[in-house]
UniProtKB/TrEMBL annotation:
Annotated gene: queC
Protein name listed in UniProt: 7-cyano-7-deazaguanine synthase
Reaction catalysis annotation: 7-carboxy-7-carbaguanine + NH4(+) + 2 ATP = 7-cyano-7-carbaguanine + 2 AMP + 2 diphosphate + 2 H(+)
EC number, as in UniProt: 6.3.4.20
Cofactor binding note: Binds 1 zinc ion per subunit.
Length: 219
């Protein structure tokens, strides 16, 4: 198994950027891959490109336009507003059906062509907003499926799986990239870089985690 190289599924948001620098500490060579699925806010791809260019990380953007046609929701359609609160029943309208499954599948195909076994993704069951494809059971399942499908030994790493947003900020601090995460990433569902719009669920989660982190660490 090649333990020198890793592929990071990279959106340009807080979680995947934290994972990118986590991977840089553990692997000799890191390649970031992002996906263009005609998402509402293309700025996240610009953030991803800028971060990789600034920190000398090899970066590819793969075309996933078909996902936009198949899964209309608030992250892919300008005429659908993001739910400000989680629905009492069902999934948030920001959930893109099959997104993480497709990203990991295409990421694995990409990795195998380069002889890479290790794939890193920023999913978390601790603050997963009800998204089923952020759960640990899903990651374990697709890891087995990809191994069987390609007769190849992939290892999917999920550094954030069991930590919340406060602990994710602490991890960024420990990695020495707190300012990068705070200023250069895009997590906001309304497409505003850095601190975001302050209104959407992603911004609420990010801000609460940051304030809790500062309080816990006397910063």
């Amino acid at each position: 198994m090649n333990k020198e190289k890793a592929v990071v599924i990279f959106s340009g948001g807080q979680d995947s950027t934290t994972c990118l620098f986590w991977a840089k500490k553990r692997f000799k060579e890191v390649i970031a891959i992002s996906f263009d699925y005609n998402q509402k806010h293309k700025l996240e791809l610009e953030c991803a490109k800028d971060i990789c260019k600034k920190h000398n990380i090899e970066h590819y953007i793969l075309d996933m336009a078909l996902l936009n046609q198949l899964a209309p929701n608030s992250l892919t359609r300008t005429d659908i507003e993001v739910d400000k609160e989680a629905p009492k029943e069902g999934l948030p309208n920001s959930f893109v059906d099959g997104r993480n499954m497709l990203f990991l599948t295409f990421g694995a195909i990409f990795a195998k062509q380069r002889g890479i076994n290790h794939i890193i993704t920023g999913v978390s069951q601790s603050d997963f907003s009800g998204y089923p494809d952020c759960r640990d059971v899903f990651i374990k399942s697709i890891n087995v499926t990809l191994n069987l499908a390609m007769d190849y030994q992939f290892v999917i790493h999920t550094p954030l799986m069991w930590i919340n947003k406060e602990e994710t900020w602490k991890l960024a601090y420990d990695l020495g990239v707190l300012d990068i995460i705070k200023e250069e990433t895009l997590t906001c569902y309304n497409g505003i870089k850095g601190n975001g719009c302050g209104e959407c669920p992603a911004c609420h989660l990010r801000k609460k985690g940051y304030l809790d982190f500062k309080k816990s660490n006397n910063l």
